[in-house]
Amino acid sequence: MMKKPFVTKEQLETITKEYPTPFHLYDEKGIRENARKLKQAFAWNPGFKEYFAVKATPNPAILRILKEEGCGTDCSSMTELMMSERIGFAGDEIMFSSNDTPAEEFIKARELDATINLDDITHIDFLKKSAGIPKKISCRFNPGGIFELGTDIMDNPGDAKYGMTKEQILEAYARLKDLGVETFGMHAFLASNTVTNEYYPTLAKILFQLAVEIKEKTGVALSFINLSGGVGVPYTPDKEPNDILAIGEGVHKVYDEVLAPAGMGDVKIFTELGRFMLAPYGHLVVKAIHEKHIYKEYIGVDACAVNLMRPAMYGAYHHITVMGKEEMPCDHIYDITGSLCENNDKFAVDRKLPEIEIGDLLVIHDTGAHGFAMGYNYNGKLKSAELLLREDGSVKLIRRAETPEDYFATLEGFWDLT
Ligand SMILES: *Cc1c(COP(=O)(O)O)cnc(C)c1O
After folding, report:
1. pLDDT tens, 20-52?
2. Which of 163, 254, 274, 275 could form a disulfide with 140 if both were Cys (CB 3.0 to 4.6 A apart)?
3. Ligand 1 near 189 CB (within 6 A)
4. Is-above-0.85 flag for pTM?
5. Residue 55 CA: which ligand 1 atom is closest?
6. Ligand 1 center from residue 370 Cα (angstroms)
């Protein structure tokens, strides 16, 4: 698969006249079309809802677009709950899938009447004491061991801090029922960034079978099952993207095989996708400002890991297009670097690209999720602006760039030692 930017060089040249690089640019059209396709993939399930994982792209404009497309939010912190509240998401449109949760956050979630997704059995008493037990609640499951699809090891739940064991979750439902809970759900997140149509159906089968067992053993009939995040995107151009319609059909088949015969054909399916909803619809747009020839060839750009941490943190691949040079041969090998005093601050290592000249605009692909959001302020570097490419081709600023005043704001009143 050839990776093509959703903007042209000419469009970017116009945009950069008003908004200097670096910035994150989001594609409203792509976001909406993808959200509609997800909805279509699960249209067979009347209660289906996607709760967008706010942590992936915590921007009000993005959340409003997704709200218009029928999505809710999935939060795991106070500020994510506050952002959802301010945008006007109703209680049943907010999922609170947190872990190691502070009491204030449970209190806030209860105040908003969000659906609390309990990470641990000990949180029942913690929640009871701090905020009270709601009428509706969800529990997070961790099957332990390793999670395999065929012969591929997908992830290692046995090593993950999340969720309850099977014995614990059975006990949790029984206790919550005694405490007056009337509506129950279950959640699990077993593998991240899967690029296979098998992940959701395989996860669904595990959860559906457990749901039947929960009903038999505790009398609790789940109302919803939350398949959470983990449906990924192909960051490298050699991978085929997931087919969300096939994924929806795969879950449908398992639903008809396992839940329907057990008299549980009214269970709602929820998702909490972040990456799948946004990653391909964001670009980090940067400019080449330096070239350096030592033991390797370097191109220095005007952004750094503060703007996109995934390469530095995970060694993640992000495709790069040199704008206007799409048809030129990739006959140069570069490290594309940022300006941090950290040698892992490289957007690409040994990347084959066309010859880059100072002033060239580069698009770093698939930065729409876990991109801007993971930013930090190391080296006193400032976070960039976020822009939205509207469906009519116009561009709207949806977050201004940080200024030194923002950076120094928390030091106001603390400049003197006395
Ligand atoms: C991060 C996260 C998600 C979203 O994961 P993606 O891989 O971005 O789809 C969903 N639910 C929970 C609880 C998460 O922590």
Report:
1. 999 999 999 999 999 999 999 999 999 999 999
2. 163
3. yes
4. yes
5. 1
6. 10
